[in-house]
Amino acid sequence: MKSLRTTNFLLAAIALLLLTLALRPLREPAPVMAQSPDTDYFMEPGTFMVRSYDTNQQVYSKIMVDLRNGRVWAFPTVSPAPYPADPVNSKPQTSHPFMVGRFALEDMKKFVPDDAPK
Predict the structure, then answer these.
(1) Is residue 75, in this structure, part of any structural domain at all?
(2) Domain range spanning residue 76?
């Protein structure tokens, strides 16, 4: 009889501990991180006709700016659609970027007046 009482006590303790583990997220919810880890890029809305500097071709592209170093990249979409699409081929397309230019972001710090707020 004592063995049955001990078993029931241990099962009740296990059930109580499992219940506290299950209810912990309701009492202390985990914080939600809405920030994206890849915030170093800016994607220009829309598509633009871009001339590549190496082949002298014009192609519709999505423009992306790397905010860390100022490089401007174009991702060809072949059509005015905002995603890579080939009207002749029905397979999903992959767009490989080419560099369009560069913004000299480091020069912005050179022209700060002395009386500018910091």
Answers:
(1) yes
(2) 41-109
Looking at the 3D structure of the chain, how many domains does it have? 1
- How far from 6 is each of 1, 11, 14, 20, CA to CA, in Å? 9, 9, 12, 21
Does residue 81 register a pLDDT over 90? no
User: Is the residue at 97 inside a domain?
Assistant: yes
Q: Does some domain include residue 69? A: yes
Mean pLDDT across 16-20: 93
Residue 16's identity, in one-letter code, is L
**pTM summary value:** 0.57
Give 67's contacts (C-beta < 8 A, 6+ positions apart).
Answer: 39, 40, 41, 42, 105
**Residues 6 or more apart from 49 whose CB is under 8 A from it?**
58, 59, 60, 61
Tokens linked to 88: 């002749």
